[in-house]
Design a protein that fits this description.
Length: 302
Amino acid sequence: MNYKILHVIILLIAVIFGNACIEKAEPQTSHDKLIVVVSILPQADFVEQVGGDKVEVIVMIAPGASPATYEPTASQLKAISSAKMYAKVGSGLPFETVWLDKIRSVNPDMLLVDTSEGITLIAMGEHHHDEEISVHDVDKRGMDPHIWLSPANANIIVQNICDGLVRIDPANKTYYEQNKEHYIHDLEVLDLEINESISGFENRTFMVFHPSWGYFARDYNLTMIAVEVEGKEPSASDLEHLIETAKMNNIRVIFVQPQFSTKSAEVIAKEIGCNVVPVDPLAKDYITNLRQVYNTIAQGLT
């Protein structure tokens, strides 16, 4: 064989294999992922559990901020322009009521998923079954938006998120559905744990500052007493009534959350000799957080 021809062939092979190695070595960038926007941190956990390494999540409400007062930043609105999906809570969260139209105008092509679809709402501060009403049949003002704080509701939310991801990325349907089934199993285990933890208590009343835990109370046959009165700090007469109510119900703990003032709760706690304990309804690691919460509530009921 002609040595010049052989030399050319060897050079061509080297170039081909070299290019192949370079292409294979290129890392996956975040641009390869689906950008999904959510309002609150627990939703981010749900999306990441289902979407795995195929999603990148933008959370609108910053950690420690109140959903009633938070305003999105310019950088957040800019990031939304490349999102494929917005998974809204959908239950009347104040942030979404005020800002969702603006957010959608930034990127009208992204899929809007209502994660509350299939969930019944209860009146704010209530937890009785006769207060339930279809989420699609009511003006959501005055209803309790904290639907995610029930593992049974979280099951539905996760299903809605999975359905949304499948719509924007049908090629990975099996991947999303397998992740969803695994996480729903974990939610069902959590539900059983909570039931077993608090099923035997005779005292089933707990006190909170902000009435975030109505769905939790409903699901586990508990009574929630809220310090906050219609979104406002209680008056002197309200505080007097709450102190008497706390004494009558043998309240040992008052639960507060980082997004609200603890002043009124501390006044009541001082009067009845109980503790003020923080619990966060907006923590990201949903299952770990709910385990901590039910253990804390269980201790308060003993």
